[in-house]
Specification:
Blueprint: E1 11-19, H1 25-36, E2 39-42, H2 50-57, E3 61-68, H3 76-91, E4 99-106, E5 110-115, E6 123-126, E7 129-138, E8 141-144, H4 155-172
Length: 173
């Protein structure tokens, strides 16, 4: 093939795990929307990795998810992940994170998280960032994979991402 096709756009995803005594959902919502525009948010009830992160971040952890209301090009994932790492550094104290930011990309066919950790199933994006296929869309819903993070396996989070996919589908028509 002598030409390539243009990849369809998707929605940027952000997850902020934060200490409630240091930040508020309103503050983080405003921060996210200053960078990426109006977005949809979701506060998950179930966060099984809070105990794991509390060793570094402390207690009183909460989480909020964002999906942008406008679409972005797929190659924005790398740039946004690098940007989020700078945010984490700016919010850190004594080299310990007080906000953990996960960045992802929601497309019609899948949901990908960006990570600094390499594993056999991850694809290198550049600048020491890898793409982790977290869900793929099959037979009307997102399907998890053996390596899908435990905190993305509950139905509430999956439902939020499927709702975002429906929104994306309507917006690209």
């Amino acid at each position: 093939m002598l030409t390539t096709s243009v990849a369809s756009p998707g929605l940027l995803f952000g997850s902020f795990l934060f200490r409630r005594d240091l930040h508020t959902t309103e503050e983080l919502t405003n921060f996210w929307e200053q960078h990426f525009g109006k977005s949809f948010s979701f506060i998950p009830e179930y966060n099984p990795l809070n105990q794991y992160y509390s060793k570094e971040m402390g207690q009183n952890l909460s989480r909020i998810f964002f999906l942008t209301a406008t679409s972005f090009a797929r190659d924005s994932l790398l740039k946004v992940k690098l940007q989020s790492m700078e945010w984490e550094k700016n919010w850190s104290e004594n080299h310990l994170r007080r906000v953990n930011v996960d960045i992802g990309f929601l497309a019609l066919e899948n949901f990908i998280l960006a990570t600094t950790k390499n594993y056999s199933h991850r694809v290198y994006l550049g600048e020491n960032i890898f793409a982790d296929l977290t869900y793929y869309f099959h037979q009307g819903s997102f399907q998890s994979l053996p390596w899908t993070y435990p905190d993305f396996l509950d139905s509430q989070k999956k439902d939020f991402l499927e709702w975002g996919r429906s929104f994306l589908l309507q917006s690209v028509k």
